[in-house]
Amino acid sequence: MHKLKISLAFIFVFYSLLVRAQEAEVFGAFDRDTVKIGEETFFTLSARYPKQLNVIFPDSSYNYGSFEFISKKYFPTRTDSTISFDSVIYSLATFEIDTVQYLQLPVFVITENDSFAVFSNLDSVILQQVIIKMPEKPELKANTELIEIKKQINYPYIFIALGVLIILILAIIIFFGKSITRWWKLYRMNRAHKKFIERFHELMKQISGSGPEEAAEHTLAEWKRYMERLEREPYSKLTTREILAIHPESELKEHLHNIDVSIYGGKKGTDLMKSFGFLMHFAVRIFNEKVEEIKMG
After folding, report:
1. Is 38 helix (H, G, I), strand (E, B) or coil?
2. Is 99 helix (H, G, I), strand (E, B) or coil?
């Protein structure tokens, strides 16, 4: 009987969260109808929702489809007795050549253990063609000036030299190819790892300064990008739950949850530096494992 009451309470809470998430109204719109390739354009995303809900907007790690993220600008939350209103202007650019390009963005309703996405309407822009039509026949101009002809190149000697060079390269590949490939992979990995450690330390220093939420967000994004490169998994697009499906470790879960609370929950997480320090050591551990795999391969 006690277990039945707990199950019913869980179902009621889950259903309440779904109903509250559906109460959020999200609207998105571009600032113009047409755009050129590479030109900066702005997309406004606004949300109207009950004030008791905890809502966050997409950040730089979100996948914006055919558009590239440049920056974003927040506006202060406006709240009355029951309703809150938030809006963000995203600066984007496209390098795709589709005539019509669409965008639809979500906001996330955060609960204690999960989140719900509520999407805006679908808006579009038309790609403005810069070159409309190429001339059918180029205009020819007469030129009667004498042109000095250079001496001919001795092509047979060049072909012989190229042949010898190709044979030498093939011999090196056959006898030393695997070793060279392994060395090159390790060299690139070590260089990328060193840059990550330096960059991560710099970002961690900013967390203790002004704007710790934004600094923590950038630091987490940097960690995800590096893990994505190490493991060939789309960490930048994964939620905490999806990351834990890859690495179901309780300590990792604890620190990621602490960081999420600080960034998205509007609360100050406990000992953020310790959590980010764990993420750095976690990345170092995965790096060492990948190095050993390459050496053994």
Report:
1. coil
2. coil
Question: Strands 123-127 and 34-35: what pairing?
Answer: parallel
Whether residue 5 has pLDDT greater than 60? no
Determine the structural domain holding residue 216 and report its residue range: 178-296
Are 97 and 198 contained in the same domain? Answer: no
Residues 263-273 have a mean pLDDT of 70
* DSSP structural state of residue 163: H
Structure tokens at 242: 């999806």
The residue type at 126? I
Is residue 157 in a domain?
no
With a pLDDT cut of 70, the percent of the chain lying above it is: 82
Looking at the structure of the chain, the number of domains it has is: 2
210 Cβ partners below 8 Å, 6+ apart?
none
Nearest CA to 63 among 142, 117, 7?
117
**Residue at 140 is within a domain:** no
Residues 200, 290: one domain? yes
